[in-house]
Amino acid sequence: MGRPPCCDKIGVKKGPWTPEEDIMLVSFVQENGPGNWRAVPASTGLRRCSKSCRLRWTNYLRPGIKRGSFTDHEEKMIIQLQALLGNKWAAIASYLPERTDNDIKNYWNTHLKKKLKKLQNGPGHQENGSISSNSHSISRGQWERRLQADIHTAKQALKDALSFENTTNNYFPDECDTKPGFSYASSTENISRLLKEWVKNTPKSENSSKCSSSQNSYEGKNGIDLSEAFESLFGFENFEKSSNSDEFSRSGSPSIVRDGTKPDPTGLAPLSMLENWLLDDQVKDYLTNFSFDENPDLF
DNA sequence: AATAGACACAACCGCCGAGAT
DNA sequence: TATCTCGGCGGTTGTGTCTAT
Q1: Looking at domain A72-119, which CATH architecture does it have?
Q2: For residue A63, what pLDDT band results from cuts at 50, 70 and 90?
Q3: pTM above the 0.90 mark?
Q4: Does residue A16 lie within 7 Å of nucleic acid chain B, judged by its CB?
Q5: Where does this protein have coiled-coil stretches (predicted)?
Q6: I want to staple A81 with a disulfide (CB 3.0 to 4.6 A). Which of A62, A92, A279, A288 is the partner?
Q7: Among the four given CATH numbers 2.60.40, 1.10.10, 1.20.59, 2.40.50, the one describing domain A19-61
């Protein structure tokens, strides 16, 4: 009769994750790899739903996540990919491997939606059917033909890029077999960053007076300093010098895998082609106004 | 300095397809 | 084959922070 339930729904904790919980989760993933989320609560003692554990890992702890503000380049990519794919945040995120779908979705909802609305209401929209770019102007017919060809090319690139799924699993490169913890090094950075932020944002007096039941508690159940515990578990003495996101930049990066289950689909070649296409001014203009409802046959 | 409203983002909810039993 | 959960996804909500008054 089907599978057994993933976890006992009664007594499952909700709300923000504590550093202590993060450490337990990362520790589990380090030993067992991502996946089998059902086993996480039972194996770690975490009073969290398996789903919550997966989400926490995916959005905050997995290797290669970049935090902070979005660059212009990222912003353009999101806008164009959203125009092309719609609200397929996971698909969009596969082109921005340092960002999570949740991040992109939030960024879209809080920033880009408004920004685009402003742009669309603002100057620069021509009503006469000709399309201008920075350097030249072409007829609508020429433009439509060129666009169809471009869309075909982009669709192929998308298809190729997305079809990387299930062909290889780069999460466990060969060397990881002999170097336990190798592929999770940046998870330690993610956590240490969270811890550092927590320390930074928590006044000392408050910090020292907090008990372990506090959501932001920095101390473990037995009064253990979690930063020390964490350091002894994983070690992040080199955090300061290695935590910059460049380590995970597209070129020469260790293959970052979203969620630990998908290979990074961003082989440089297809992405660059798609990027170039997406960032083309004319395509940008067109896609900004493009409606999939009116073009159901494109895909 | 106090307050209200806007904003940002982490986390949860509900749905769906795939797969296990 | 039927039933059930898992894993993944997109939408939504809750809450802390910022800003204007």
Answers
A1: Orthogonal Bundle (1.10)
A2: confident
A3: no
A4: yes
A5: none
A6: A92
A7: 1.10.10
